[in-house]
Design brief:
Blueprint: H1 2-19, H2 37-49, H3 72-85, H4 107-120
Length: about 130
């Protein structure tokens, strides 16, 4: 029985050996292009500036972003005004809270008063 199994295995392995063949080396392949180097470079520049065909959603026909019609300076001015308006979503934002106190004194007067107070040696917590 062992002999028949060995003969069957040898027959199967010889069939595989006959059908196997190695690829022959053809050397370095030579490509012959009909396009000039300048033409290929021009095509590369066009391809690099066009949309990526492999990006996500490229085949979904998604419209590109529309250019803005607002000027940059107008948008900046609106942003500054919104920042100065404060948090419009805060509690009591519409309660017309009083604005911060602004002094009517000039800077030199305030500085002179501070120096006079410091010269008298006023202790902390007294006026």
């Amino acid at each position: 029985m062992k002999a028949s199994v060995l003969l069957a295995a040898a027959a199967v392995s010889s069939l595989f050996a006959l059908s196997a063949s190695a690829e022959e080396y053809q050397g370095v392949l030579q490509f012959h292009s009909s396009a000039s180097r300048a033409g290929v470079r021009a095509e590369a520049v066009v391809a690099s500036h066009s949309a990526d065909p492999y990006r996500e959603g490229a085949s979904a026909d998604i419209a590109p972003a529309l250019p803005t019609l607002a000027k940059r300076s107008d948008t900046r001015a609106e942003a500054v005004a919104a920042a100065r308006a404060g948090n419009i979503y805060a509690d009591g934002a519409n309660a017309d809270a009083p604005q911060a106190f602004t002094s009517t004194l000039d800077r030199a007067t305030v500085r002179a008063q501070a120096r006079a107070t410091a010269a008298r040696g006023v202790t902390e917590g007294t006026l």
